[in-house]
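HUMAN: Forgive my ignorance: could you write out one protein's sequence and backbone structure tokens?

ASSISTANT:
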Amino acid sequence: MITLFIKNMVCNRCIMVVQYELNRLGLDVKNIKLGEVTLNKELTSEEKNTLDKVLIPLGFEIIDDKKSRIIEKIKNIIIDLVHHQDSNTKMNLSDVLSSKLHHDYNYLSNLFSEVAGITIEKYFIAQKIEKVKELLVYDELSLNEIAFRMNYSSVAYLSNQFKKITGLTPTHFKQIKEDKRKPLDEV
């Protein structure tokens, strides 16, 4: 059994695409989740090269070094927390990352900043703002409801952070209705 770490798997559609390609290549998949694929047997170097050739044009890449794998895991945990979990519970991001990755948060934070060129906190905020943009475009929730859902202490705090990141107020963003959202792998 072998686990492959795959860069830029950020959503369920990514999982479906990677699953499809693995099946198409006849590889025996045991489990697949964001950023990780577990195969029932080791890959030959030829199979690995073929898989690389298939994944790279689709925007994915097999990650070989340990540091890059940890960075990708951090990103996937944050993406999952912000975009895929419908939870209003207040959570301490450092505790979540430390417990899921079994590393001290200071180590994870320094590694992330060194490799990704941005702090974990700024990455987390960028992901939250992308989710807020999505919720604003859907136009189903009030700004108050969005602030609550995204665990902001107040609408004012959300609005200030939104303007700092986007240059627009949430209300102005909603009015212009331009597609100002980025793909998650570009955040």
Remarks:
- The mean pLDDT is 87.
- The beta strands are 2-7, 29-33, 36-39, 61-63.
